[in-house]
Amino acid sequence: MQTKNLKAETIIFVLLLQWAYTFINKVLYFDTFRRQINSAYLLSSLGSALSYFLQLPHLSLVILLLKKSWRKIVITSLSVLLIYTGYLIYILKVAPSIPFSCISLFRGLDWNDQLWINLAVLTLNIIGLIMFSYKSPPHSSHAQTRY
């Protein structure tokens, strides 16, 4: 396996783990997640429906990242991360008050810790997107056939 392919596969694996862990965590601790959404700044007005709706992008990303033919879906992963990271930055820099609990990837993280994790995963996601943009498909017309 080429080094570039190994790097791309590693990035996909890390993104897959991140989204799968997030989905499973939010399902297993759904009541806590719903309470956090209902008490979150700007999100509480959307009610409990948002806590159900937010499961869909997580599960969809896990499924799409598992399908090799759809691996360019990392742009969707990037989009979801950008929205959430933007929300984190808004809470930390603009919001009149910081909510008590953070809807974080790992228990015990505060808003700043979650922001740093998001920025790291965003960076990894961007690197993956760049790698997939320049990666030629396995059955490219540029490949020469040898007989």
Task: Give an account of the 3D structure.
By secondary structure, the chain is mainly alpha-helical. The protein has 6 helices and no strands. It has helices at 3-28, 30-39, 49-53, 55-66, 74-93, 111-134. The two termini are 22 Å apart. The relative contact order is 0.14.
What's a quick, concise take on this entry?
By secondary structure, the protein is mainly α. The chain has helices at residues 3-28, 30-39, 49-53, 55-66, 74-93, 111-134. It contains 6 helices and no strands.
Question: Which key features would you list for this structure?
Answer:
147 residues, mainly alpha, single chain, 6 helices
Describe the secondary structure blueprint for this structure.
Blueprint: H1 3-28, H2 30-39, H3 49-53, H4 55-66, H5 74-93, H6 111-134
Tell me the major beta sheet: none
Tell me the number of helical segments per DSSP (H or I, 4 or more residues long): 6
| Gap between N and C termini | 22 Å
**Coarse morphology:** globular
| Number of strand elements | 0
- H/E series: HHHHHH
Question: What number is the mean pLDDT?
Answer: 77
